[in-house]
Amino acid sequence: MALDDRFSQDFREPDAERPFGTRNEIITGLVSDWATDFSHLEPEWSADPYPIQDDLRQRCPIAHTDRFGGAWLPTRYEDVAAIAYDTERFSSRSIILSNFRPPPEVAPIGGSPPISSDPPFHHDARKLLLPPFTKSAVERQEPATRAFCHSLIDAFEGREVVDAARDYAQHIPMRVIADMLGFPAEDGPQFREFVENLLEGINLPPDERIERVSRLFDYLLAQVNEHLDDPREDLTTYLINAELYGHKLDSSHVVGTMALLLIAGIDTSWSAIGASLWHLARTPADRERLVAEPGLLPTAMEELLRAYAPVTMARLVKEDMRWHGVDMKADDWILLSFPAANRDPAQFDRAGEVVIDREINRHAAFGLGIHRCVGSHLARMELRVALEVWLERIPEFTLADPSAVTWAAGQIRGPRTLPLRI
Amino acid sequence: MKVQIDSGRCQGHGRCYDIAPGLFGDDDEGYGRVLGDGLVPPGQDHEAHLAVANCPERAITLTKGA
Questions:
Q1: Strands B24-26 and B60-63
Q2: ipTM of the assembly?
């Protein structure tokens, strides 16, 4: 067995020196006023957040809530962009808003670099990840992705109604990222559990969350050990061997980045593919046009990414300050809604409509500034191939039961149940 | 007309080399780069304008002349 001291003991051993974070009371239930009591966990938001965001943009463009220990929600493009660019005053040390704030001492690295990192460390951690995620690097995954999409549709044989979220969209990014990390393809169902635990469990009691996150890290450590014994041409081996400042990465960095790639790569693309199919199922004119003009897909895809951007990020305010007319306190959360920015009429004509041939589309679905989604080229490949194969194989489809469609709550929004008649 | 990328603003979204592959390419880290001298050949004005208008970071400029 290969020995690597970094992974021979659990780096999560409790450390008396380790600073504690802040835990806040869990508040759930009906929102009284979205301007002063918003919650992205309530069913009204997950079902249809856009009217809420549009209303806030007009009457209270930086909304507040006392939930989660205090959080702000900007809905104008210019405010969202300003925060994304301002890494001096807004920290990424936690990018999932929850009832627990990690202590300031975890910056600038954070738990899952580079998404959780601040400058200057961020730049160096990110640089390691860029080469395997360029457009040309991810093109190597395209033939296998296409074949896999076909195999999912082959399995629909004989069925009139399929769940496009569960039976199609979710499997595609799971398979692609499992291949890239060198994890067994049959572990997919576990990945789904990890994703739900991390992204949708944010209002659970902290001890329960910690226990759930532990299961993910146990899995990742087991994968690291298998790769130490049997190194391969994949991202896990790449991260184990990667060096920063003349040293191999800390075990917490290796495993934190693996967690990031696994979690961030799955829920997001799954949501984008699902939301696109949902739109096309309920908009026959757009569906028919894309079937007739497959060359329009790259343009249409950007519009679907704009209108149904799945990802909202979070930031933590570093110091008390007056910012764009509101009094922010140190450690207040910011819910950084790229979906809300993408529907700001000050930035986009016909912002609330899906214009399938929109040529000018400076949307922010993959973020803005130094934290631009490192997997954006992979996500675009997956979305394009998933839609190409679906439209080629199933040119006609409709919502089987609009009331049965369910959407994920929390920061990553997309359909989780999507029955389509094919 | 000539295209230029401000490397201080580019974050590697890749919209330019998606939209105008005749004018832009990517480097080893996915950041955009101008192909050749950046002069826009006849017939590629539309792509050049679209690359400018779709860059999320507003990193591309199009200058007249040359």
A1: unpaired
A2: 0.96
